[in-house]
Design brief:
heterodimer, A: alpha/beta, Rossmann fold, 3 domains, six-stranded parallel β-sheet, four-stranded parallel β-sheet, 15% strand, disordered C terminus, B: alpha/beta, 25 helices, 48% helix, Nase_comp1_CS (chain B), Nitrogenase iron-molybdenum cofactor biosynthesis protein NifE (chain B)
Chain lengths: 460, 491
């Protein structure tokens, strides 16, 4: 069981986190016709927007209530009202996802009450548009929690409650924020290949997959439909992926009685086997030939790849569920998790991370813990540490702004695990050092042989 | 907050700004940033603006006193380049948690954070940024910075520009105020000279100031401080001993230029290094100011010689693009000086300007654009995304030059696009920079993808497949005649 080490510094150095409202907006972006709205000052929105755009290379719908000094002192309910009405008139969204920020939460505003009033007052004007609130102050949590709160808010706010007639082939899937567009697409194919009908919430594969529409659309185009969210209660079974999706899965269970199964990770042979068995037992169908073929390919990739993984020291910084997903992947191929850094101590998954300890911290912590590691695994902001430590960086998670196509990288189920093995093994091969007489000299000073790296810039 | 409101009031009263002077007292009081419409606003906040102006100072530790979002979502995101120190790219934030806020530990955490940075990185200065939440809970960053300065013996500078104070533009101005109050004039240089200048509002994006600096070096002009591009703290602290200044990005730092003139008698002019004639004019104005301040007038002639040489080289290089770019239609959708600065050179080689945004342009700018473009209708304040998309998808322009904000409108309309704002990948300043800009326009317009991505999908156009089947006698098929026809018959 990993020991959780809490942060003791006062100055965070090179943050690992992106903010909680950004995570909530991310989830709302997986809904068709959606418009996320930050309740805060315009900068909160602008920063998140720029980060999304840099990651996805797409125009991202995201708006702000534009709180100013007066609103900060006197209350911002009228700003919220004006913003919702403006958005409704200008962009006709099917969903407005309100994400609160630290500013409005520090004021302690009753946003839920405000939204209830706005809905009541403008019932007719707002017809055809759902307005959902996620309480996501920046001073708490990070993307994972924001994402989970938004999904919970959508279920609680939109899904029809009560026990319903169940559709025997319908599966509700709640993917965590660490799944990419490619992951979601591939998972849908897999589920459909068993004759099942998946409803995925949020479905970023429909909205953030980078396509060229034939007209200008101000909201998202594609993703889970609001109608599908409303009808989630008719699913036979719910599958949640990632510990942070337990809360929305529980909300669905409480509201509609749809039972859930939670997969902490879908990367790796064993977890995929469990997933496939579950699909088989729900559908009553045997695994299709192409799924079997993929499994054999993964077995072979493990056999070919394990030479490169054994004994390697891996330093990972990621949000809790992604940290778990990757750490178990590397450990499962014989690597050692030399450093594990994450954003929050709230997640129950952390103690299961196969590392001696998990540091709650930032990329400054990663940089000091990763000295001597063979591979850094984190998002694009790890590039500075990678340069200074001269350790290759595998970019994962959010944001990845200095490489193209991160949304189309597959990392789950048989095929994604296979691809991931190849990617990592290739990084190791590309960075292999040819043997030198000095390095192999049996009489060399063995004490200093591991100190080739320059000391990191970050402290302690 | 009272001192902050005084600062804001001061920032909105700018005698050196024509636009500001044109307003009556009441309008001036409202400031130059338009009030924002909730649900229809775009752009950064005052904190963003302050950080943009100050962060390129390379050897300073920039510490953001805030919950995570202000710094966590925005760090290391700009294209300014350093020739030495890298500390400015290291991100520092107090990352306030709920507990910090509830327990009122903000100021204490800030002080400790300053101490940690001092011990670990020993920078010449730490800039501390206030933000919405820390302003709201009333953290007194000025007091903390004062105490830290005394205790740790290094400059700890409060940057009082919380996001809720207003727009990015206001933040630019408040950053300038912080430099005036706490930095400029605090260090006496031991080597002041008659050819020392300051460049204000140059950010060294993609290193583009390095396309200009060698020209100044050649003339014997020394850049005392370039604020903020590739700057060191000491350069800025001793900037008050320069003899003349050039202000590059007019909306951002005009108050800084004006106040430095008032306080230290440093004359300035507004100029641009974008475009060939503008670069030449900037060099001329600089040396004229220096001569006025006592430099040897022989520099005037040397400058003219250099300009003549450089212009000839640049025009010759540009001429080679004329054939490829003549008659191409450019839409310039960007604010500020950049618009008219490049227009002249583009038109000189036969490019047509079909529209330009004048959102951030001054009255003078607009006059100049009017003269150049002949049609007023080509000028627009701003264009809605939908309109812009329509214009581009109807191919009413061959390329759009703009900032990242409208990038995807052009790309989704399958129109060539070139970034000329802060995230751009190429340096465009000076003579070589203009040639680079034209080269990039050429590359963008003539990329072979455009004809491919505009092709309809096969299921939308039903091409005459029979004509393309291998059994017809085109050259390739002829070789495989028998085989191909046999296959076709089977189908």
């Amino acid at each position: 069981m990993a020991r959780i080490l809490l942060q003791s510094k006062s100055a965070a150095v090179n943050p690992l986190k992106s903010s909680q409202p950004l995570g909530a907006a991310f989830a709302f972006l997986g809904v068709d016709g959606a418009m996320p709205l930050f309740h805060g000052s315009q900068g909160c929105t602008s920063f998140a927007l720029v980060l999304f755009v840099r990651h996805f290379k797409e125009a991202i719908p995201l708006q702000t209530t534009a709180m100013d000094e007066v609103a900060t002192i006197l209350g911002a309910a009228d700003h919220l009202e004006e913003a919702i009405l403006n958005l409704k008139n200008r962009t006709k969204p099917k969903l407005i996802g309100v994400c609160t920020t630290a500013l409005v939460e520090t004021r302690g505003e009753d946003c839920a009450g405000d939204i209830a009033n706005i809905k009541l007052k403008h019932r007719q004007e707002l017809a055809g548009t759902e307005v959902v609130l996620a309480n996501t102050p920046d001073f708490d949590g990070a993307i994972e929690e924001g994402w989970a709160r938004a999904v919970t808010a959508m279920i609680e706010g939109i899904t029809r409650s009560g026990e319903r007639a169940r559709h025997p082939k319908k599966i509700a899937i709640l993917p965590g924020c660490n799944l990419t567009v490619a992951d979601v697409e591939h998972m849908r194919d897999m589920v459909e290949s068993f004759g099942l009908k998946p409803v995925i919430l949020p479905d970023i594969s429909g909205s953030l997959d980078g396509t060229v529409p034939d007209r200008w659309v101000a909201t998202t185009y594609g993703g889970t439909s609001v109608e599908d969210i409303r009808e989630l209660g008719t699913a036979m079974q719910c599958i949640a992926i990632g510990e942070h999706m337990r809360r929305p899965a529980k909300a669905l269970l409480g509201l509609t009685g749809v039972p859930y199964v939670l997969f902490q990770s879908l990367t790796g042979l064993q977890d995929t086997d469990r997933f496939v068995s579950l699909l088989s037992s729900i559908s009553g169908a045997a695994a299709p030939a192409r799924v079997r073929r993929r499994r054999a390919q993964l077995q072979d990739a493990m056999l070919d790849g394990h030479f490169h993984f054994g004994g390697k020291k891996i330093a990972i910084a990621a949000e809790p569920d992604q940290l778990f997903q990757l750490a178990t992947f590397f450990a499962g191929l014989g690597s050692e998790i030399a450093a594990a850094v994450t954003t929050t101590d709230r997640s129950k998954i952390l103690e299961k991370v196969p590392a001696v300890s998990v540091q709650i911290g930032d990329l400054g912590d990663l940089e000091s813990l990763a000295v001597g590691a063979d591979l850094l695994v984190t998002h694009s902001h790890g590039r500075q540490a990678s340069e200074r430590l001269r350790i290759p960086l595998m970019r994962i998670g959010f944001p990845v702004f200095d490489r193209l196509g991160s949304q189309h990288k597959l990392a789950i189920l048989y095929q994604g695990t296979r691809d991931l093995i190849f990617e990592v093994a290739n990084i190791f091969q590309a960075n292999q050092h040819a043997p030198t007489p000095e390095a192999l000299d049996p009489l060399r000073n063995r004490e200093i042989s591991h100190e080739r790296c320059s000391p990191p810039l970050a402290g302690q | 907050m009272s001192s902050l409101s005084a600062k804001i009031k001061d920032a909105f009263d700018e005698p050196a700004c024509d636009k500001n002077r044109g307003k009556d007292a009441k309008a001036r009081k409202e400031g130059c940033s338009k009030s924002l419409t909730p649900g229809a606003a775009a752009g950064g906040c005052a904190f963003d603006g302050a950080k943009i102006v100050l962060q390129p100072i390379t050897d300073v530790a920039h510490l953001v006193h805030a919950p995570l979002a202000c710094e966590g979502n925005s760090w290391d995101n700009r294209g300014a380049v350093s020739s030495g120190p890298t500390l400015w790219r290291t991100s520092f934030t107090t990352d306030l948690t709920e507990l910090d806020l509830v327990m009122g530990q903000g100021e204490r955490k800030l002080f400790k954070a300053i101490r940690e940075i001092k011990h670990t990185y020993a920078p010449p200065a730490i800039f501390v940024y206030s933000t919405c939440v820390t302003a709201l809970i009333g953290d007194d960053i000025e007091a903390v910075c004062k105490r830290a300065t005394e205790k740790f013996g290094l400059a700890v500078v409060p940057i009082n520009a919380p996001g809720l104070a207003g727009s990015k533009n206001l933040g630019n101005k408040l950053a300038a105020e912080a430099l005036l109050d706490h930095v400029i004039g605090t260090v006496e240089p031991d080597d002041p000279g008659p050819y020392d200048i300051n460049i204000l509002g140059e950010f060294n994006l993609s290193g583009e100031f390095w396309l200009v600096k060698p020209l100044l070096d050649r003339l014997g002009i020394r850049v005392r401080a370039c604020i903020p591009g590739d700057a060191r703290y000491r350069d800025i602290a001793s900037a008050h001993r320069a003899r003349a200044a050039m202000m590059v990005c007019s909306t951002a730092l005009i108050s800084l230029a004006r106040k430095m003139e008032e306080r230290w008698d440093i004359p300035f002019f507004e100029g641009s290094f974008y475009g060939i004639s503008d670069t030449s004019q900037a060099l001329r104005n600089l040396v004229r100011l220096l001569v006025r301040k006592g430099a040897d007038p022989e520099i005037l002639e040397r400058t003219e010689t250099l300009i003549a040489q450089q212009e000839a080289i640049a025009w010759k290089k540009l001429e080679s693009y004329r054939q490829r770019l003549q008659g191409k239609r450019v839409l310039l959708n960007t604010g500020g000086v950049k618009s008219w600065s490049v227009v002249h050179a583009l038109m000189e080689i036969g490019i047509e300007i079909v529209g330009t945004s004048v959102k951030k342009s001054t009255v003078q700018d607009k006059e100049r654009i009017k003269q150049v473009l002949k049609h007023d209708k080509h000028m627009f304040e701003s264009m809605a995304a939908r309109e812009l998309y329509a214009m581009l998808s109807e191919h009413r322009a061959d390329i759009m030059l703009s900032g990242g904000r409208t990038q995807f409108i052009a790309l989704k309309a399958k129109t060539p696009w070139l970034d000329i704002n802060q995230e751009r990948q190429h340096p465009y300043a000076g003579y070589d920079g203009m040639v680079e800009l034209v080269r990039q326009i050429d590359l963008a317009i003539h990329n072979p993808i455009w004809s491919q991505v505009r092709q309809p999908a096969p299921w939308d156009c039903q091409p005459d497949l029979i004509g393309e089947l291998p059994c017809t006698r085109n050259e390739t098929a002829y070789l495989f005649d028998e085989f191909a026809c046999a296959t076709a018959h089977e189908c």
